[in-house]
Amino acid sequence: MPRQRTRPRRFVTSSKCATPTISSQKLGELATDAHVNLAYYNLKSREYVSVAGNATVTQDRALIHDFYKPDWKAWFGDEGGERNGGPDGPRLALTR
Predict the structure, then answer these.
(1) Alpha helix locations (H) across the chain?
(2) How much is the pTM?
């Protein structure tokens, strides 16, 4: 099957650390080795997909606003102040 070019996939991520910056262990690993692989397997149909590439991390607020969905608050709960789970929260970052 020919390789298809699509829009880059983005994933939201967070740091549960006490400081308002993004510094989780996984993001630290990406800083030293950006190689990633995302794999999914459907047990019922026995289909799978595996995507490999290089990841980058951004806290670009305009980009986060473009992708933000209100249901993200289920994962980024309100911790008070600016850490309210909204698109301007310092815990949110996107990986690409």
Answers:
(1) 25-32, 61-67
(2) 0.66
